[in-house]
């Protein structure tokens, strides 16, 4: 929206294979208030407090909290 960029956790997205796209089920007004950043000033994505804020906003958990299946 405008010049604002958003970091959205992968697990907040749903894959729509029919239309070949990802869908974020979120009201537009909620997205307007989402934590974002300027295209010329990216956040430190390795910062755990920043990541925690993003996951908290979208109601997701970091990948490290999901069990992994070894094949």
Q: Can you offer a commentary on this structure?
A:
The chain is α+β, with helices and mostly antiparallel strands and 71 residues long. It is 23% helix and 20% strand. The protein has 2 helices and 4 strands, in the order E-E-E-H-E-H. It has helices at 28-32, 48-58, and strands at 4-6, 13-16, 21-24, 36-38. A two-stranded antiparallel ribbon has the order 1-4. It has a two-stranded antiparallel sheet with strand order 2-3. The chain starts with a strand and ends in a 13-residue tail after the last helix. The model has no long low-confidence stretch (mean pLDDT 86).
How can the largest sheet be summarized?
2 strands, antiparallel
Beta-strand percentage range: 15-25%
DSSP strand tally: 4
Q: How large is the count of helical segments?
A: 2
Q: Residue share in helices?
A: 10-25%
**What is the radius of gyration?**
14 Å
Distance between the termini: 40 Å
Order of H and E elements: EEEHEH
Strands in their spatial order, largest beta sheet: 1-4
Shape assignment = globular
Identify low-pLDDT runs. none
Quick overview of this protein structure:
By secondary structure, the chain is α+β, with helices and mostly antiparallel strands.
Task: Give descriptors for this structure.
alpha+beta; two-stranded antiparallel ribbon; two-stranded antiparallel sheet; globular
